Automatic annotation (TrEMBL):
It is a multi-pass membrane protein. It is found in: Cell membrane. The chain crosses the membrane at residues 7-28, 58-82, 138-157, 188-207, 227-248, 260-282. Keywords: Amino-acid transport, Cell membrane, Membrane, Transmembrane, Transmembrane helix, Transport. Belongs to the binding-protein-dependent transport system permease family. LivHM subfamily. Pfam families: BPD_transp_2. This is Branched-chain amino acid ABC transporter permease. It comes from the Bacteria.
């Protein structure tokens, strides 16, 4: 029972981090209709900036600068390539984000090399005991931080003018623009928020028991993509639920790896995609995705 409790807490912590990343995918898709595959490189950028600055600025200030830099980088991608190209098909813009991801990741990987960079988090390898379960403090911090940030996001989405504009844009971007919604501002803010959340996620993806930031850290963002898809790409709540399912399934697969030897090694790595496929077979639009209706 102790093992299961520890796996569940680790799964919730992992799901919380995935939720921050998945919200980035969803908020961009809702605002601009683009699947941003450059999200992985933005996460790596945020982690890299924090890793380079934490010794000089301290952890907290380095995180603030890393979040700001990543938000600005995401905003520049939107302004220069998504909005800057004018009226281009959405699928073309989605493919463009893959190219941006390759370019940015290549440069960051060149800078990181074979090193494992520490982000200087204050939790280190400390652990805390909850009941019979022992969990790294970084995992608990991940859950608390995610709850706070996601709560702020949903409050802004529900009660601010930007949130109202986002909801209108997600329903019908053309109609929203005709009704006076400033789509350029809505899209820019959405991309900046997604970048900021990715930088925060990088902190917890590289904290203990992970050895630090390396060239493969950005690939973890791709595990959050199934969470956004199975939740419904246009549903923030669906992304949250999907992230928890993905995090728990990956933690369970890793925790009981010895019992799954018949399926081969590395089951935890493919578990998110297996869960996504199974749910999409049941609900093709995702758990809370909107169904498109066609008039005939």
């Amino acid at each position: 029972m102790t093992k299961l409790s520890e796996i569940a807490l680790n799964g919730l912590a992992l799901g919380s981090v995935y939720a921050l990343i998945a919200l980035g995918f969803v908020v961009i898709f809702k605002a601009s209709g683009v699947m941003n595959f450059a999200h992985a490189s933005l996460l790596l950028l945020g982690g890299y900036v924090i890793a380079k600055l934490h010794e000089d600025l301290g952890f907290a200030l380095a995180v603030l600068v890393g979040v700001a830099v990543t938000a600005v980088a995401a905003g520049l991608i939107e302004a220069l390539f998504i909005r800057g190209l004018g009226k281009v098909e959405l699928h073309v813009l989605t493919i463009l984000t893959i190219g941006i991801d390759i370019l940015l990741t290549t440069e960051l990987v060149r800078r990181i090399g074979s090193d494992k960079l520490s982000l200087g988090d204050p939790w280190g390898g400390d652990a805390v005991t909850i009941g019979d379960a022992t969990v790294a403090k970084a995992r608990i911090a991940a859950i608390i931080t995610a709850v706070v940030l996601i709560g702020i996001f949903f409050a802004a989405f529900r009660f601010t003018s930007w949130g109202l504009s986002m909801r209108a844009a997600s329903e019908d971007r053309e109609a929203a623009a005709l009704m006076g919604v400033r789509m350029k501002r809505v899209q820019l803010i959405a991309w900046c928020i997604a970048g900021a959340l990715a930088a925060v996620a990088a902190v917890f993806l590289t904290a203990s028991p992970t050895p630090g930031l390396d060239r493969t850290t950005g690939l973890v963002a791709l595990k959050a993509f199934p969470a956004a898809v199975l939740g419904g790409m246009d549903s923030a709540l669906g992304a949250l639920i999907g992230a928890m399912l993905i995090g728990l399934s990956e933690a369970l697969a890793a925790g009981y790896q010895s019992d799954l030897d018949a399926l081969g090694g590395g089951v935890s790595g493919v578990a998110p995609y297996v869960v996504m496929i199974l749910i999409l077979l049941w609900r093709p639009t995702g758990l809370l995705g909107s169904k498109e209706l066609s008039r005939v």
